[in-house]
Write a structure and sequence with these properties.
The protein is mainly beta. It is about 10% helix and about 35% strand. It contains five helices and 19 strands. It has helices at about 5-15, 75, 110-115, 225-230, 255-260; strands spanning about 40, 50-55, 65-70, 80-85, 100-110, 125-135, 140-145, 150-160, 165-175, 185-195, 210, 235-245, 265-270, 275-280, 285-290, 300-305, 310-315, 320-330, 340-345. The chain has a six-stranded antiparallel sheet with strand order 1-3-4-12-6-9, with no helix packed on it. It has a six-stranded antiparallel sheet with strand order 2-5-10-7-8-11. Strands 14-15-18-17 form a four-stranded antiparallel sheet, with no helix packed on it.
Length: about 350
C-alpha cells in the first residue's frame, strides 16, 4: 500500500473510531528499543524490549537480534528502521512433536480492558497488522490468547509468504461473550507468532475464531520447512493492535517515548554517588544507597546488580525505588561503581 493510500485509510478510520494517539496497544512494535542487547543465542527477553523468544526441544538454540531494515525494503520507505530477527539453529534431529520456536508479546490486562474494545461483544473488533519476512517460502501460524477467567485462544495465519520478501499481514479479531480480561496489572492478552510448533501443540482447529484454550491445539498443523532449514531467518516489525475493524497506518512515536513505556517493565542503570546514610552496630557498619527506577514500574521488580561486592537489598522493594546496602569494617562503602537492572516483565 502506498503512503497516500495508507493516509487515506487513516483519515477514514479516524471517523470510524480507528485513529487517534496511543491507539497501538503494542509497545515497541517498531522494534526500536533494545535495552538488554542487540543479539544473543538465548530465549526469553534478551534483545528487543517487550518481545521474547520461546523455544523447546531444539537441537540448537535460535538467535534473536535487533537488526537494521535495508533501505530498499518497503517497510523502510514507510519509516521503519529496525526489525526483530530470529535465526534458526541447525535442528539436525528434525521436527519433533514437542519442538517449538515462537515470538511472544504480552499485554498488561488493564491496557486492553480500558482500550475501548468491548471484548465480550462480537460486533467490537480489534485489528492486528504487522510486516513479516521469512527466508523460506511458506505459511506461518500464530495465536492470540487470553489469561483471565476461562482461557481462550484465537488462531490465525500469515498466508503464504514469498521467500526474502517483506509482506504486510492484517487480521481482524472480533470479541466473544466468553472472554474475560481483568482491569489489573497482570497478564491480559498475548500474541504468539509460531515459527514452528510440533504436532504436540497443534491439531485440526479453525482459524480466525475464538475457542477454549488447549495447549495441544494452539493452531493448525505447522509446515516444518522453515524449522528444518539450517539458519533459516524470520523477521518482523510494525506490529500494531488497535481498536477498529480497519487497520490504520502504523502509529509512529519518538524513540524516547517508546523507551519510557518499556521502562515500566524493565530498566537498568548505574550507581555513581555516595551513600546517603550509615548505621553502626554489632561490630560492623552499613552504608545505604537509594536506587531510583527510571519509571514507576508495573510491579515490584526483581533487582540485580554487578560490580560491587557485599551488596544486598532491604525487603522494601517497591515500584519506584529500592534501598541497597553494603557492610564495611572500615567505613568504606560502595568501593566501586555498580550497575543494576530491575525486571517487572509479564
Amino acid at each position: 500500500m502506498s503512503k497516500a493510500a495508507e493516509l487515506a485509510n487513516l483519515i477514514g478510520n479516524i471517523n470510524a473510531g480507528g485513529g487517534g494517539v496511543n491507539r497501538n496497544l503494542v509497545i515497541n512494535g517498531a522494534m526500536n528499543v533494545a535495552q538488554r542487547g542487540t543479539s544473543v543465542a538465548n530465549t526469553g527477553y534478551q534483545t528487543v524490549d517487550r518481545f521474547q523468544i520461546g523455544a523447546s526441544g531444539t537441537d540448537e538454540t535460535p538467535t534473536q537480534a535487533q537488526v537494521d531494515i535495508a533501505s530498499s525494503a518497503t517497510p523502510y520507505t514507510l519509516g521503519f528502521r529496525k526489525a526483530f530477527k530470529v535465526t534458526n539453529g541447525n535442528q539436525t534431529s528434525g521436527a519433533g512433536t514437542s519442538d517449538i520456536i515462537d515470538i511472544k508479546h504480552v499485554f498488561e490486562a488493564q491496557n486492553v480492558a480500558t482500550s475501548g474494545w468491548n471484548f465480550t461483544s462480537s460486533s467490537s473488533v480489534l485489528s492486528l497488522s504487522f510486516w513479516v519476512k521469512s527466508s523460506v517460502a511458506q505459511n506461518f501460524f500464530g495465536h492470540i490468547k487470553t489469561y483471565d477467567g476461562t482461557v481462550y485462544n484465537y488462531p490465525f495465519s500469515t498466508g503464504s509468504l514469498t521467500a526474502d520478501t517483506w509482506t504486510k499481514v492484517t487480521k481482524t479479531i472480533s470479541g466473544n461473550s466468553n472472554l474475560t480480561i481483568n482491569n489489573d496489572n497482570g497478564q491480559g492478552l498475548e500474541i504468539r507468532f509460531l515459527l514452528f510448533a510440533g504436532t504436540g501443540y497443534t491439531a485440526s482447529v479453525s482459524e480466525d475464531a475464538w475457542v477454549a484454550y488447549d495447549n495441544t491445539q494452539r493452531s493448525p498443523d505447522n509446515t516444518s520447512t522453515w524449522y528444518t532449514t539450517n539458519d533459516a531467518t524470520f523477521e518482523i516489525t510494525g506490529v500494531q493492535l488497535e481498536v477498529g475493524q480497519n487497520p490504520t497506518i502504523f502509529e509512529s512515536e519518538p524513540v524516547e517515548r517508546t523507551l519510557s513505556k518499556c521502562q515500566r517493565y524493565y530498566t537498568e542503570g548505574s550507581y555513581k554517588e555516595n551513600p546517603y546514610g550509615n548505621h553502626t552496630g554489632g561490630g560492623y557498619t552499613q552504608g545505604w544507597a537509594n536506587i531510583e527506577f527510571k519509571q514507576n514500574m508495573r510491579a515490584s521488580p526483581t533487582v540485580a546488580t554487578s560490580g560491587q561486592a557485599n551488596l544486598g537489598f532491604t525487603n522494601t522493594v517497591d515500584k519506584t525505588t529500592v534501598l541497597a546496602w553494603t557492610v564495611s569494617s572500615s567505613n568504606t562503602f560502595f568501593t566501586s561503581d555498580f550497575t543494576w537492572t530491575a525486571d517487572a516483565e509479564l
